[in-house]
Amino acid sequence: MTGVQSSIEILRPSEAELHELFSLAKAAFSDEPRWNDGRVLNALLSDVVFAAHERARPAGYLALRAEGDVAFLIEQVLVAPGHERRGVGHRLLEHAEGYAIAEHASALQVVVERDNSPARSLYSRLGYVPVEDELFELVLPQLH
Q1: pLDDT-based confidence at 70, cuts 50/70/90?
Q2: Which of 95, 93, 143, 83 is nearest to 123 (CA)?
């Protein structure tokens, strides 16, 4: 996976690309009962968003927002169809972690539904611990 990961570039998306990211998310999740156009659009327009690109094509995104003075909450993570199991999600999470550390946050948090066993397992392997029923948290090292 290292070779694949090295071909993944993480960038802040342009305004025009935000529409493409929304379309990717809608195509992947609009059939899910929790899908909400407004919530996804709001996150893309108001959160800190990082887009993953693989061979100059959008491969996914992560939306992150400040949660109080000490933490960032990962609101959305999307790995686009056709880019699964290629390291896109890991690269996005690593980038979000680095961003949060640079912003002097003490933790990175993510909501993971009880029935999403693969995601719960992934976050646990990455060092996130459950702090509430559906809330996982990664305590971040502090820069001095």
Answers
A1: confident
A2: 93
